[in-house]
Amino acid sequence: MTTSIQTAAPMEGARPFVSITISVNGKPMEIAAGTTVEGLLTLLNVKREYTAVAVNRDITPKSTYTAVTLSDGDKVEIVRPMGGG
Amino acid sequence: MYDTNLVLGGKEFTSRLIVGTGKYSSLDVMREAHEASGTEIITVAVRRVSLPSGESILDYIDTKRFTLLPNTAGCYTADEAVRTCYLAREAGLGEMVKLEVIGDQRTLFPDVQGLLEATKTLARDGFIVMPYSNDDPVMARKLQDAGAACVMPLGAPIGSGLGIRNPYNIKIILESVTVPVIVDAGVGTASDAAIAMELGCDGVLMNTAIAGSRDAVAMAKAMKLAVEAGRLAYKAGRIGKKLYATASSPLEGLPDWTS
């Protein structure tokens, strides 16, 4: 995967950062490089209870959320129970 | 009358009615309907969270009282279905899964080849597999041999409300397997559920028949009573069918009215 490098808007006190583009539940999303699964869930304000995450088709166990760093082009699926029969 | 419990993968249940969480007019109605149905097992789908994450159906289900049964609805391959089950387990929804591998969009009939494959994989990985199948006795036996905790033949297409279209096949399935037989899909009204139970089925699973009725809470109660009535009738042992009448009152001792 190629990493797209962008410079943040020159705000006071802000440092240039590297952003990557991932897909979250089918929608593209730009996040800072180095973001972990834990960081993403916090960013999206996702409830942890009864939620599961898969990155590139593989399930990410809850115990590894803080250890798994997302890479450019990663496809993240975040699921939870919904109404069904 | 003494009755045994419904046993699925070593877990025991008193209620023989499994209900869903889809298509209710509101989550409050759903909760009330669950209550009225007397159910102990509730099916849920596993879907992408809608971002930003808002209300969850699990705010309306007491997970200490009810056993959740995640389904693999919408999966068209064994691989998708198996991955969905892993996701469900990781999400903390337990080991019991309602396995669906759909083969056709219009009928939602199962792809039995994929179903069998997914059943084998999941049973090996410790899941309590409850496969939604067609009403084929041969397939039912193969699913049992693959490690399914029960078999769940359809009564009619999902959401069709057509009832038990082939009671004779259901009867043969009951004779073909030793695992519980649960009719899944097709029930339209209370008598359909009673028929399934009178045949000797171990349970009935339904969603649309309750959620789609005009008064879901009343229908949930009707289904509870129908499942219980059907079960009792089965245990009681019905009379045989005959073409002609047999008098219920004694033929002797009639007064003589001739003049």
List the topology elements:
The complex is a heterodimer of chains A (85) and B (259).
Chain A: E1 19-24, E2 27-32, H1 37-44, E3 52-55, E4 58-60, E5 75-82
Parallel strand pairs in A: 1-5
Antiparallel strand pairs in A: 1-2, 3-4, 3-5
Chain B: E1 6-8, E2 11-13, E3 17-19, H1 27-37, E4 41-48, E5 67-70, H2 78-90, E6 96-99, H3 112-124, E7 128-133, H4 137-145, E8 152-153, H5 167-176, E9 182-184, H6 190-199, E10 203-206, H7 208-211, H8 216-236
Parallel strand pairs in B: 3-4, 3-10, 4-5, 6-7, 7-8, 9-10
Antiparallel strand pairs in B: 1-2
Helix pairs in contact in B: 1-8, 2-3, 4-5, 6-8
Please tell me about this protein's structure.
The complex is a heterodimer of chains A (85) and B (259). Chain A has one helix spanning 37-44; strands spanning 19-24, 27-32, 52-55, 58-60, 75-82. In chain A, strands 2-1-5-3-4 form a 5-stranded mixed sheet, with no helix packed on it. Chain A has 1 helix and 5 strands; from the N terminus they run ββαβββ. Residues 1-10 of chain A have low confidence and may be disordered. Chain A is mainly beta. The longest helix of chain A is centred in the middle third of the chain and has 8 residues, at 37-44. Chain B has a 5-stranded parallel sheet. In chain B, α1 packs parallel to α8. The longest helix of chain B has 21 residues, at 216-236. Chain B is globular. At the A-B interface, β3 and β5 of A face β4 and α2 of B.
